[in-house]
């Protein structure tokens, strides 16, 4: 490398412009840390200890979901909710503050389906899609996209969050919220407890899944 080339390279570095060498180095680093994916599920049900209130029209709600979470931020779930009466307006992964996803409570950390309309549950991160309406008694939500809730994860990376969920699923739960449950908790000044929920359970993982764009 001659003096002119050295001067140009130094100028680009000072300006924050990536050089071909630095880009290749970044890709090589990613290849040594391939994306890891985890599979989890939950059996959701109305929790009479956490979600009960008088004249609840959704107290028969139940559901089941399966999810794949990958450390590159690709998060998808299939969920079927049934037995409820009022529209579903939000769904989240929550992290229990006492690490007890079965009976504990905590803030949402990943959003799935939900309503972005004014007056609904807003945690600062928009929902990618609305929850499906009930048809023949079922709300079937296929391939829901999960989005990390930026306001409750304290600067945590998506890689670290997904790894923690996959490693310690018992700390987390999936919670669906209905219009009736949200209206109740809103009117009584409490945090929204949701309509039906279920602790996450691991059913295997896939190590070393490397995405096409990371091999380029």
What topology emerges from the helices and strands here?
Elements: H1 3-14, H2 20-32, E1 37-45, E2 62-70, E3 75-82, E4 88-95, E5 108-114, E6 138-145, E7 147-148, H3 158-167, E8 172-178, H4 179-187, E9 196-199, E10 201-206, H5 212-215
Antiparallel strand pairs: 1-2, 1-10, 2-3, 3-6, 4-5, 4-8, 5-7, 8-9
Question: What key phrases describe this protein's structure?
Answer:
216 residues; alpha+beta; Immunoglobulin-like; 2 domains; 5-stranded antiparallel beta sheet; 10 strands; 22% helix; disordered N terminus
Give a short synopsis of this structure.
The chain has 216 residues and is α+β, with helices and mostly antiparallel strands. Helices cover 22% and strands 31% of the residues.
Structural class: alpha+beta
Please tell me how large the radius of gyration is.
Answer: 21 Å
Number of strands: 10
Assembly state of the chains shown: single chain
- Report helical residue fraction: 10-25%
CATH-derived architecture of the largest domain: Sandwich
Q: Shape, please?
A: globular
CATH class of the largest domain: Mainly Beta
Assess the beta-strand content as a share of residues.
Answer: 25-35%
* Structural domains: how many: 2
Sketch the topology as an H/E string, one letter per element: HHEEEEEEEHEHEEH
- Kindly identify the CATH topology of the largest domain: Immunoglobulin-like
- If strands are numbered along the chain, what order do they take across the biggest sheet? 6-3-2-1-10
First CA to last CA: what distance?
27 Å
Query: Residue ranges: pLDDT <50 for 5 or more in a row?
Result: 1-32
Count every helix, treating DSSP H or I runs of 4 or more residues as helices: 5
Mean pLDDT: 83
Please summarize the sheet with the most strands.
5 strands, antiparallel
